[in-house]
Amino acid sequence: MNTIMIIGAGQLGSRHLQGALLSHLALQIYVVDPSAESLNVAKQRAYEVEWGNTQSAIELCQEIPKHLNVDVCIIATTANHRFNVFSDLVNVSTVSNIIFEKVLFQKEQEYIETEKLLLKHNINAWVNCPRRVFPTYIKIKELLKAESEINMTVNGSGWGMACNSVHFLDLFAFLSGNSDLSIDFSALEKNVDESKRGGFFEVLGKLQGQDRQSNTFELFCESGTNVEIDVTIKSKNYDINIHETDGHYIVKTNGISEEFPHKPLYQSQLTNFSIEDIIHNKHSHLTPYQDSMNIHRPFIKGIKHHIELALNKPLDACPIT
Question: In order of start, what are the domains of the chain with their CATH numbers?
Fold first, then answer.
């Protein structure tokens, strides 16, 4: 039986649990959260799905179990707690593979310390930016593989620019094949808003930049109660429009347009595949930690500076999650 640990049993962690339970593998799943209420919600949600293996088992824990050999750990806490949780974990148990949620960490030094700990403990690590495994974007990457340059634009409202830009920066890196990004924060709106989660902040406006191969991106987010997301990707031979909210995408090439369905996948539909891929193949199609660190560090630094200017005070960490 393979040992899985999910740390953080909130909204996202409980969906990871549902996804893990779809696996055909027999899994011993430890769900860790200091909140008994969160653990109870996770337990309830576990029985809302049909288990892929009736031999799987769940154990709910308010502290990280000690002296385990963990095949795959998913750390789905908020960003402000993630590094300490990771550090505590590797001190008390042996872990072979980790999937981190994003935004990864709030302090730049924590990225460096995490990299050192991963190397020290010989842990494989990925970051959960799941658009890389959406069928739509896999097909689009294949279309663009011979293109010399691409431009990607994200337009929308209400999609959480501070907490979710990393998803689109990662998508750009996936499509372009390059995670070394230069990001311009100058067109963000000066004011920032406290997010629904107290102590965290959100931003609006525009982010833009490029990679070292002159592929470019622009991300726009306006205020809105409804989430609207449209992604446009242009190259010499293709003009592709993905209407994520409406569930379709259009590919234009050589004067011909074709429309296809776009189906986003929920976390409860994905975690089983990630776990099985890692256990069977020692590999994941999610973002390798090093690549994600390259994307996160300039993003965290720039957003932190922007929020400091808006609040008119220095900050110890970037208050986003």
Answer: 2-129+269-285 (3.40.50.720), 135-264+299-309 (3.30.360.10)
Amino acid identity, position 128: N
Q: What is the pLDDT of residue 224?
A: 87
The structure tokens listed for 202 are 């959100």
Identify which of 296, 101, 294 has the alpha carbon closest to the alpha carbon of residue 179. 294
pLDDT, residue 197, reads 73
Q: For the segment 76-94, what is each residue's pLDDT rounded down to a tens digit?
A: 999 999 999 999 999 999 9
Which residues, other chains included, contact 47 with Cβ-Cβ below 8 Å and sequence gap of 6+?
Answer: none
Give ∠ CA 213-118-164 in degrees, rounded to 5. 50
Q: Residue 140 corresponds to which amino acid? A: I
Return the bridge partners of 215, or none: none
Q: What is the C-alpha separation between 11 and 50, in angstroms, rounded?
A: 19
User: What pLDDT does 185 receive?
Assistant: 98
What's residue 199's pLDDT?
84
Distance (Å, whole) CA 67 – CA 63: 13
Q: How far apart are CA 33 and CA 13, in angstroms?
A: 10
Percent of the chain predicted with pLDDT > 90: 97
Residue whose structure tokens are 């700990």: 117
Residue type at 64 in one-letter notation? I
Give the C-alpha separation, 270 to 133, whole Å.
9
Is residue 14 within 8 Å of 23, Cβ to Cβ?
A: no
Q: What is the pLDDT of residues 143-179, one digit of tens each?
A: 999 999 999 999 999 999 999 999 999 999 999 999 9
**225 falls in which pLDDT band (50, 70, 90)?**
confident
Residues 6+ apart with CB under 8 A from 183: 169, 207, 208, 209, 298, 299, 302
- Paired with 58 in beta bridges are 29
